[in-house]
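Sync notes, pocket subgroup
Present: LS, DG
LS reminded everyone that the earlier model was apo-only. Rerun requested with tryptophan included. Inputs:
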Amino acid sequence: MGKHEPYHLHREGFATSLGVLAATLGSAVGLGNIWKFPYLTGQNGGAAFVLLYLVCVFFIGLPVMISEFIIGRRAKANCVTAFQKLEPNRPWYLTGVIGVISAFLIMFFYTDVAGWVYSYIFKSASGAFASIHPSETAKVFNSFISSPYAPLFWQWVVLVVISVIIIAGVTKGIERMTKTLLPILFVLLVICDIRALTLPGAAKGVAYLFKPDLTKITGAVVLSALGLAFFKLSVGMGCMTTYGSYIGNNENMPRNAIRVVLADTFVSILAGLAIFPTVFAFGFKPDAGASLLFITIPAVFKAMPGGQIFMVLFFVLSAIAATGAMISLLEVPVAYLSEQHNWSRPAATVLSALVMGVIGILATLSTSVLSKTLVLGKTFFDLFDFVSSNICLPLGGIFICLFVGWVLGRRVVLDEASNHGRLNNEAFLHIYLVVVRYVAPVAILIVLLNALGIFKF
Ligand code: TRP
């Protein structure tokens, strides 16, 4: 890509349906599946949380994803410009602005966790787990994150890698790579699952994941499940709007959204099935928090023949999945700055990455020197995570639904999402319209107000 060419000259779009699926799935699948889903499930008490999460994914996340595709393809522009193009007279574009802010908030901590994954490639390859018992894996992790230097180093490595990928204009390349490698990650997860499920005491882990105890549900738990649904599917901030703008006019957008949601949810469940049986088999705590993945996965690999090689491969593939997801996140401010403010793509990338790296230091040091520095009762890491997933994305989701349901309106939606009637999906779209006009915005609002204590239900 030429240095000073405006980005929109390159608005090429995806060539095939498989390309659309691979790119959107590449954004959705990431640390959310293997790290955040198990960790939040463990912290929020297990199966009841999973159930709530699934409800949020299908009744809120899926409709928001379809809505973002509609906005993006209709406008053919980044997430801020798209709203301006479709409704120039009112400030709906602020939805896109919240989206750009969310991209930064997420990246502040996502790059930190991605750095942990990168470093685990080398830790597992160099035999850091070779001479310890499976139940001692927490020691390795804790000594790693309680020092400020190594995590900072890895966070910056991550930022350099994704910046180079974006500046070199090879994001298509990483998408292709994700497409080829995702199936291998599936297979590795299945291998982990088989070993984990045959460990003594595995049944407890399966019950923990699938036998809901409804007394565990509180307002805060519901909000976490909702926030995770948005985070997981990369919706609520304009990422999928940007991707929607590359979707060709003959593609079946609702079907693509359904496929992404199903495949993504499947990966999360596979990860849960690897992690929770291991938790119970080795006496870890399900509510270990952000460290859960990094404690359990080495343990399960230690308990199988050839485990070290599989473990290296697992972290390589996880790093690639995380990198694909981060590229879709970094692309949001880069597309905005270059399309809307005529910045060159390299300048937009370097500046965005620098801001992410500098403020991201606060998240990274939350596990070491800043672990006692709390804002609103949370470390910086938790604060960035909470504000982005549990506040910004749901708010963005409300506005996206209202925009599609009421501003674009029934006719445009039916026309756009059915490819001018060629798809014969009218019955589905009628239900979808009721959801985006009434059900989703009201439900999100109630969950938000209730959990934040603004209004008790
Ligand atoms: N969905 C990705 C994951 O699970 C993270 C992600 C990528 C994301 N793009 C996003 C989250 C946009 C919210 C919004 O790892």
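DG: DSSP finds 17 helices and no strands in the chain.
LS: Residues 27-28, 30-33, 106, 231-232, 234, 237, 239, 325, 328-329 surround tryptophan (CB under 6 Å).
Action: DG to write up.
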